[in-house]
């Protein structure tokens, strides 16, 4: 009984200790540095003394080996502790009666000073309650007073918090396991004592639910990690190329996940219902290949251009019928089509912003990075992921050069070069690049215009048909290296140069994309203007067909075959086809570039090196590096095209999923087989959010044209789910009018009123303004607090150094070996008064007991280095932790702890 | 993994999951990695928690560590006696701290210990010299090394006592943009 009791006292003490430290390793680890080893032993011994379950002792990390010095030490410690505890127990028993009478709050305040005694007393009390009311635990619960209950509840909560944060404690595993088990036992035991009467059952039920929920969550997490693909591939790449190259592949994987979700949305809600329940192929004109194209509709060259049968399939907008409901489910396909198109953008926006937010959470203050160049180089430049000796070699080399560079920078930071020449060169470079950008924009515009002329002609060659895609791909392939060559003129620092380079490539891609879009829009307008005449022709054809003379009036004429009906050009499908082609050609160009530029080059360098007059591997061609920025930008822009095109070509996302899947494997193979690690250091973590920002920008930019077409262009009259309507969004109005009760329609009409929307927007602006100002003031107070802490620390250090000098003078007479030790041990004593005064100013209420308790605490550490003269009240574990403890820290910890009670 | 229940009991796995940032699968994977290091030493049954240590010579040959200039320090910091010989618990501890999920503070605490070569709870000039020498494989001359160390102390030493305390170190490392991504070992 007494043994068990002691164990619980220990464990409660551990809880208090744990709570004091639980904030962050930063607050408590000063006190933990030296004594951690000893505490480990203690923790290992604890289960043995508890004697709770057999077999747990081993789990705590194994008993020390017999005969080892460790074991002896542990034994000695154990004996000492037993002695001390016997003394303490008697003391506690003597004082427990008196203590119980005392005011609760006072004892609570003192709880930290002699935590063990207090807790022991409490446990004894609890035990008494338990034994006296030997009936059910319910009566036991009632017999406990409110304060005790609150206290147990608090401790249980603390233990739970401890369990939850156990993994981020900087303790060795054995100690973590021991503490975890103790905490769990504690919770298990005393959770039932909480709650009263009826509330008790509810409480127990809630606890059970919480437990089940935690278990479910863990299982789900286990499941989730099992679903993450390519972990091993990425690990390989990481160990060969460091985190920067791997960041691209992680980005690719993330993109793949996003695209899978989009694919699921579109495929599950649009394509599958249409295929299963919609009208079959050949039933109506929009689902049939026209008579003129029928002969060649199955040729590969035609299919490759997404014409023929593919054009009239569910992959494209034009295939869908404008029937309001389809199938026996009465599935509202046009509505679903519209909503899916909107939710693709909604989901993408949400996921991008969320991942951006979670990225920024990790990074703290960003401003003052330049103050730590050397420190960052020293402590964060080694990439712990590297597991390949070649990469390690290049990493060593790059670290060495970066150190040398910054030394040189430091030594001649204000060296004056020829400023005028540099300026001139930079202006020249920018001029050249702007010329390039304009030229590429014009080239694309020209080509798209020409392709419109080509499309009117009859037999055109393969090149003429695919000119736009080829030109765009070639521009994307050759412009970035050109920019890099031009950027060499500028003589920027590599990191700044990289930013410029990224910005320029981004501008190039964006310019190309938008020129392409503008030209496409011209095309669309042209088609729209022709639409009216085609519509008339269609009507006239049908009219003449049915009213033609010379047909027996009594027999109804068979309907015109859908292939023969004249039809409009269906600009939506045309746009979709353009995007589809662009995506496919982009993919092929990427793969061919990798194959030629990386793989063949690597093969050439590797095998021709034996019979070449200079060293190919070290000399001119050498092996290619993995082009991270270009690849990431390519991926981002590809995604932009997908977002833009997916509304007009639902199958585009499916193609993109395939593309990402193949490019994952292909690029993994290429990078492992034919690339060499980077010479230049590239910041991966920082640019992650940079990439996300670009992605967000591209998402926004690709949202614009789609929104424009949806809101302001009339849909084609004879194809697509919105045909026959004035605008595409009319489908919502239609659904509201026909499928919802009238009052809902009124509500929606009311909500759509500009009189309500404008105030709502205003309100949103106000909220943004308010939140912005709140965050500003918070960050200001944060900075102030930091300044305060800094100032306090400096004051304290100056105290410390004064004291340290004094003690050093004192200890000059003593042996040299002891001098360091004694200064260390006396330092806290010197500063203790200071810290006590600090805590007094912080907490006005508890001046008397506070000062006395902290002063009383200040005594034992000073005498602590003589183990014999240990005062009976001081716990061995905490006592030894104290001398190392930062006095201000402990005081602040205490004052911070108080509000909890 | 049908035989996972013979290696650990269910409770053991749960406890490990509470104490590390790993899921069950990852713990099993780590166990197999550990077991592969010394197949004749590490038993296939951990339910009775045998007291087994894998010597540093084997730990250091792991592909994750073998090219790391600080591998010895890592092993020493996480081993129980500071000699680099690791039990399975230490092993799990090490990779848990190095995992992606570990918070910045925890990583900073252990990074400090790793760079504190002489275990005196301060990173002094000597520790810094060791770090630079290991990072550059001794390719900087003595003057440059001392200049770099001086600079680091100049930048990061908040209290001007000529050495970096844990607080100085944390204060500095919290602002490092790359710390989380580089102080990370994928298992």
TrEMBL record, chain A:
Major location (coarse): membrane
Keywords (A to Z) from UniProt: Membrane, Transmembrane, Transmembrane helix
GO biological process: detection of mechanical stimulus involved in sensory perception of sound; vestibular reflex
One Pfam family named in its UniProt record: TMC
Molecular-function GO terms, alphabetical: mechanosensitive monoatomic ion channel activity; voltage-gated calcium channel activity
Region called Disordered, residue ranges: 1-142, 796-901
Residues that span the membrane, as ranges: 254-277, 336-357, 427-448, 501-520, 647-669, 690-711, 747-771
Domain TMC: 570-685
Record-stated family: Belongs to the TMC family.
Record's protein name: Transmembrane channel-like protein
Protein's organism: Camelus ferus
Originating gene: TMC2
UniProtKB/TrEMBL annotation, chain B:
Membrane topology value: Lipid-anchor
Gene Ontology biological process terms, A to Z: angiogenesis; calcium ion homeostasis; cell division; integrin-mediated signaling pathway; spermatogenesis
EF-hand domain sequence ranges: 144-179
Top-rank lineage group of the source organism: Eukaryota
InterPro entries for this protein: CIBP, EF-hand-dom_pair, EF_Hand_1_Ca_BS, EF_hand_dom
SUPFAM superfamilies documented for this protein: EF-hand (SSF47473)
Listed GO MF terms: calcium ion binding; magnesium ion binding
Gene3D superfamilies cross-referenced by the UniProt entry: EF-hand
Gene Ontology cellular-component annotations: growth cone; lamellipodium; perikaryon; ruffle membrane
Location(s), subcellular: Cell projection, Growth cone; Cell projection, Lamellipodium; Cell projection, Ruffle membrane; Membrane
Keywords noted in UniProt: Angiogenesis, Calcium, Cell cycle, Cell division, Differentiation, Integrin, Lipoprotein, Magnesium, Metal-binding, Myristate, Repeat, Spermatogenesis
PROSITE patterns according to UniProt: EF_HAND_1 (PS00018), EF_HAND_2 (PS50222)
Name of the protein in question: Calcium and integrin-binding protein 1
Taxonomic source organism: Camelus ferus
Gene symbol of the encoding locus: CIB3
